[in-house]
């Protein structure tokens, strides 16, 4: 095995282990350190998915979101499994990876957080909740709009602080 192939394997293994760690952090933040009600979840489970997308690209970001959602639901169920939420988790990792992977700027961070909070969390998740619980979409919207609007600056600030001031300086995430 040549040195180039060996270093590439090591690099892929390092990425795999790093993403696995981010999945574990995602499960902990989502299942144990979140405030959950029937129609709202307030927490920081988005952060490891965003970091995976930023550091390793959209494919690893979406895998982190998907595996974190499915594993979290299998190990620590909090209701019935609904694949729509897994789709939202996949798209969240994809958005962060596409917008922020290898090209992090504050403007891209703001755009990606707006897409995640408004399009995915507000629109898609409200649709999934409407389907699951048989509630009218518009009945669920007011509280979810407030949550999404509040979450945008929180998402932007946390991603910026964690990525720009800490993780981007580590060799493993470069």
Beginning-to-end CA distance, first to last residue? 25 Å
Task: Please indicate the count of domains.
Answer: 1
Main pleated-sheet profile: 2 strands, antiparallel
- Quote the CATH topology: Arp2/3 complex 21 kDa subunit ARPC3
Percentage of residues in helical conformation: over 70%
Highest CATH level, the class: Mainly Alpha
Number of DSSP helices? 6
* Rg on CA atoms, Å: 17 Å
- Beta-strand content: under 5%
Strand order of the largest sheet: 1-2
How is this structure best described in words?
Helices cover 76% and strands 2% of the residues. The protein is mainly alpha-helical and 174 residues long. It has a single domain, classed as Arp2/3 complex 21 kDa subunit ARPC3. It has a two-stranded antiparallel sheet with strand order 1-2. Helix 4 (83-100) runs antiparallel to helix 5. The protein is globular, with a radius of gyration of 17 Å.
Observed structural traits:
174 residues, mainly alpha, 6 helices
Short description:
The protein has 174 residues and is an all-alpha fold. It has helices at residues 3-31, 46-56, 58-75, 83-100, 106-133, 137-165, and strands at 35-36, 41-42.
Any chance you could write out the topology, listing elements then pairs?
Elements: H1 3-31, E1 35-36, E2 41-42, H2 46-56, H3 58-75, H4 83-100, H5 106-133, H6 137-165
Antiparallel strand pairs: 1-2
Helix pairs in contact: 1-2, 1-3, 2-3, 2-4, 2-6, 3-4, 4-5, 5-6
